[in-house]
Structures are given as C-alpha cells and as structure tokens.
Amino acid sequence: MMPHSIIAHVAGAAVLATLAALPLAAQQKGQPPGQPGQAGQQQGQMTQEQMQQQRLARMQEMSQRMDRIHERAQRLSQEMQQRMQQDRERVTDRERLVLRSCDALTETAAQLRQLADRTRDMMRDQDMQRDRDMQRDMDRLHQHLGAMADQMEGALETMDRMRQRIHRTP
C-alpha cells in the first residue's frame, strides 16, 4: 500500500470504530441508543456545516474554472477577428465559419458560468441546505457542470487546432 492510502485506511477504521462506540457511550450516559446527546448533535451539525463549506468551495472553483474557459474562448475569438481584419481581402468562408463557431462557444461558456453562479447561490440558500434530496441534486448538478466544463475545454482545443490549420493553408 502507498503511505497515503495506509493513512486513509487507518483514518477510516478510526472513524468506523468511533461510530460503532457511540451507541455504547450513549447507553452509559443514560441516553437511549440512536439519540446522541447535545455534544453529538453539535458534532453532527459541524460535520454538516463542513460539508456545506466544501460544497460551496467546489462551486466557487467551478465558477473560476468557467471564468477561465470563457476567457479562453474570448481570446480565441479575438485572435481570429484580428487576423481576419488584417487580411480582409483574403478572408475565406472557412474562416468566417470557424469565427462564428468560436463566438458561439464564447456565448455558451458565459451561460455555463451563469449556471455555476446560480447553482452556488442555491447551495447558499438555508432552506435548500436542510433538504437532503436537494443537496444530492445540487451535487449531481455540480458533477454535470464539471462534465460540461470538460467538454467545453475539449471543444476549445479542437477549435484552436482548426483555427491554426486554416491559417496555415492559403
């Protein structure tokens, strides 16, 4: 085993042992099993708060990633527009088509950024935080946004290769 996986394994075993001991500790304190005392509730709340903070941090990272994708798409479009302005008389239909596609990718990236921001806003909503099904769906939405960001990055790489290929051929 790798050192970090040994640590994870030991930490996981410690968590399981702690969780298994909670009902016994509650009985010793005179509380029925399954009903943690106030300290246990606070610990559970802190865990939920920590999870919420992690969700918000992931969404912030997603928003920043969408920003970078949008900026990259804008740069690609601007480079193409500048090139086309320099050689107006030699601009081909292929170049115009690639430029329009770049512009469409730029608009899509901006819309994905807005979606990431709205999702982060939903994650901050107290009512939505209390609803476990809503949390699960927001986590799924975050995963979908990540997949869309991956697709956008791939599309931008392809579009950049197309732009380079068009400019190499007369």
Name a few traits of the molecule.
170 residues, mainly alpha, 5 helices, 0% strand, disordered N terminus
Radius of gyration: 25 Å
| Share of residues in helices | over 70%
Oligomer: single chain
Treating each run of at least 4 consecutive H or I residues as one helix, how many helices?
Answer: 5
Instruction: Give the low-confidence spans.
Output: 1-36
**Average pLDDT reading:** 77
Succession of helices and strands: HHHHH
Number of DSSP strand runs: 0
Task: Indicate the proportion of strand residues.
Answer: under 5%
- End-to-end C-alpha gap: 57 Å
Give a quick account of the main beta sheet: strands, pairing sense, barrel closure.
none
How would you characterize this protein structure?
- There is one protein chain.
- With 170 residues, this protein is an all-alpha fold.
- 88% of the residues lie in helices and 0% in strands.
- The protein has helices at 3-28, 38-86, 93-124, 126-130, 132-168.
- The radius of gyration is 25 Å and the shape is rod-shaped.
- The protein starts with a helix and ends with a helix.
Please give the structural blueprint.
Elements: H1 3-28, H2 38-86, H3 93-124, H4 126-130, H5 132-168
Short description:
The chain is mainly α and 170 residues long. 88% of the residues lie in helices and 0% in strands.
